[in-house]
Amino acid sequence: MFQRAVQFLNKAKSTINHLDLSLHGYKSPKVNLGRIQNTLNLQRNDICKITDVEFQVFSQFGDDGIIQYLISKIDIPNKTFVEFGVENYTEANTRFLLVNNNWKGLVIDGNQKNIDYIKSDQLSTLYQLYSKCAFITKDNINDLIAEMGFEQDLGLLSVDIDGNDYWVWKAIEVVKPIIVVSEYNADFGTTNPWTIPYQSDFVIGTNFPVSYWGASLLSLCDLSEEKGYSFIGCNSQGNNAYFVRNDKLGSFKKLSCEEGYSKAKFFMARDQSGKRLELEERYLSMIGLPIFNTRKQQTEEIA
Questions:
Q1: Residue 143 is part of a domain; what is its CATH number?
Q2: Beta-carbon contacts of residue 207 (< 8 Å; ≥ 6 apart)
Q3: Are 236 and 182 in contact (CB under 8 A)?
């Protein structure tokens, strides 16, 4: 019965993807399919890792499914979220939370056109969605969140700014989210405690190779321990890591960096002809660049 339902769902998804519909709207057929998929996930007894529950509605990859599963298993009194680095919010980790679960949220992006688009979206009228234009730094992030009046016991924080992710999460004190989703640079591997040195105006691909951004999973795992969180895994695409506050961990198992790591399966880095760069080529493009070792607390060079 379960297999037949999954087959039906997959066929329906395939059909919808070929329709000329507004797939980013709150009435999108994808929303109903996501609800069905989530119901099926919650009926399963074979889930061993968070990648088992992935599905995509508005997230870039399978994060909608992971987030739905986590909020069904974790006690979250305040149904609130903050997400930054959302562009125009048509593709985001929290959009399905807003539409499906009626959470209240704040989204931040540094491009005014993106924020204007969000404010004109029906979601900003129908749901408790607040949006703000700001270029996020470790010095302004607390003020940006605080001025919107969110409770310290925030439900979920999603960090995706393709650069100073480690430094910004480290700086956040005004809220203590129950769930944190943070982008990581899988090209840094599992043994290097690395983040790019803090540069307040860093923009990916501007002055350095496009592979040079963000933090390693190991550095984020170390930071999560400092802040009172446990690492529970990554999405299968190898770009988002999941952390749960220790007092809310429940039945979720804390994983080591090696246990939960996923290699990146997407490739932003390409050469001048448009050919994608493989891992070795991406790493070679960064040799000699400065990198901050978060365990030694010093800047080194990538060798």
A1: 3.40.50.150
A2: none
A3: no
